């Protein structure tokens, strides 16, 4: 670890020495190249490549394309009400709630002697098949459509768990680079989402939602390729009779860690901060596309709005990386949560048509709203991700990080279902939006509630250990499987 810190200092000194030669525009271009080079040298190029493929292509690009196509698929093909779509979107995310299951399997149950490669390949094939079913079936029943969407979501979640294990392990062995690794994940995801959202509206208009589902079979195909070219150590002398014992050991380690106040308190805050922030996105989407009460945005405009939101998310990552990554968690969360609640009122201005009274067009105000909201949301999310990596005990990093992320998804599921119920109570339908402003106002006020729970977050920053020293030194989790070095072999070497 000391060698890594020294090399990092040397790298930063080299950057400082070269910066006078790379001033202005070329300096801005050279800085991220040096940053990628530093991460590749410190963490190995295969790790950087894996993050880019899973976060950038599978999650960023794939989710960017699927978000708009799924919205129109539910609205136009399945003829759902906004409250129903809100609930069904929550159901699609259930595979992310059970992420600890995928984490336990990848950490404790190797397949044919490998614990990473087979899960990448399985996740990719699951995504390819589910997207092709949605694309090729003409009149798919709602139940089978939801099942296919859940299968595609499960494929993305399984691949996410596998790469998360690598991120978390490197965050423990290279604590000074924990913020940089989360920035790499955020940058890959945001850039991929920007490309996906930018193309989504155009593709939905050109080939329809089902045609987009056909295109969405490509990202999981790349995940299959990742699994095929991955090189990792073979697990020797493994007997499947010991699987139950290893699962029990992993469960005990997780339970012991969760009982630690330094762990369960931040977990509780993560859940509450998401659960109380009521989600009414589907209600806003139906209003956006309504020809009478709303601005009647086209597919291209909806895609552009999401794309601008991805730009805002990318800006949030850059702001955190360059200005906020070394600040205490609690300080960042206070201001970001406060601004997140205030940004919700922008929707209120739009729905009440106040922007038109000042001569601001709907599209211009909508994209500003999307950019600001996603930027603040990303800044709020980044310190929680960094904190999550510091709560994982050695040996079961991937499993425990998956558990933490599942807590977040339970919070988002609660938020989505609560929003759907509230839209139903307010009688917001496909054509009636008179009470939508009430939902927006209540949601914005609820976003301020997590400020009262900030005492659950440690006062320390990302450069300090969160787990007690005795947990960091424990070797219990390491008995699950011998640690190995996961590398990405090139296509040339694999042939």
From TrEMBL:
Which residues fall in a coiled-coil region?
none
One GO location term (cellular component): membrane
Keyword annotations for this protein, in alphabetical order, are: Membrane, Transmembrane, Transmembrane helix, Transport
State if Transcription is listed as a keyword.
no
* Transmembrane feature ranges: 47-65, 85-105, 117-136, 142-163, 184-206, 212-230, 268-289, 301-320, 332-352, 358-379, 400-425, 437-457
Task: Spell out the subcellular localization from the entry.
Answer: Membrane
Q: In which domain of life is the source organism classified? A: Eukaryota
Give the membrane topology.
Multi-pass membrane protein
Q: Which InterPro entries match?
A: BT1 (IPR039309), FBT (IPR004324), MFS_trans_sf (IPR036259)
Q: Which family does it belong to?
A: Belongs to the major facilitator superfamily. Folate-biopterin transporter (TC 2.A.71) family.
Q: What is this protein called?
A: Major facilitator superfamily (MFS) profile domain-containing protein
